[in-house]
Amino acid sequence: MSDPNDLAAFLELGWQRLTRGVADRRAAARHPVLATVSPDGFPEARTVVLRGANRTGGVVEVHTDSGSDKIASLQARPFAQLHIWDEKVQLQLRLSTSVEITQGAAVAQKWSRVPGGSRMAYGASPKPGTAIPHAHAYEKLASESCFAVLTCTIRQIELMHLADPHRCAVFKADDGWCGEWRVP
Ligand SMILES: Cc1cc2nc3c(=O)[nH]c(=O)nc-3n(C[C@H](O)[C@H](O)[C@H](O)COP(=O)(O)O)c2cc1C
User: For labelling alongside 10, which of 19, 51, 117, 146 has CA 20 to 30 A away?
Assistant: First the structure.
């Protein structure tokens, strides 16, 4: 059995599960909850698709419609937490991140790799969140100009493992990800 006090192995497990989320539609990390704070200070959380996870760069990536409310929230406060509960390995991941929003020419290559059917997720008219008279009173325009990439630079990863006994550790970019154990 592996050493339960091995911080490096614990972090490695976290990254394995994250990376798997990008490649495997059925993996828990495929659908993190992205939490932000609204411009008037309210917490807000929503499910997203994990589009990228790069351990070397310490970043994860999410795609969204630039008309969605989360963009205004991130413009006001460029911070987000991503939450994942990976039941298969009994692991909760919490990633505290700084978020950069990129659109237009800088993300044209990424847009070119978005499959035709998935493009409908970008460019709702009227914009997402608008009140409408009936359920289908909107169009999905598949608009490149509404395609926004959220590059989430990780400041901290908290891993909580529901082993017996439980284990919790925090890893920070600032100290080179060496990590420390925390009381779960
Ligand atoms: C399974 C699932 C995956 C989703 N993936 C995304 C996504 O990748 N990007 C996104 O902006 N919204 C995604 N959504 C929709 C969001 O949860 C949310 O409803 C929408 O982005 C509007 O959120 P906002 O008003 O807080 O901006 C997804 C929803 C579900 C249920």
Answer: 51
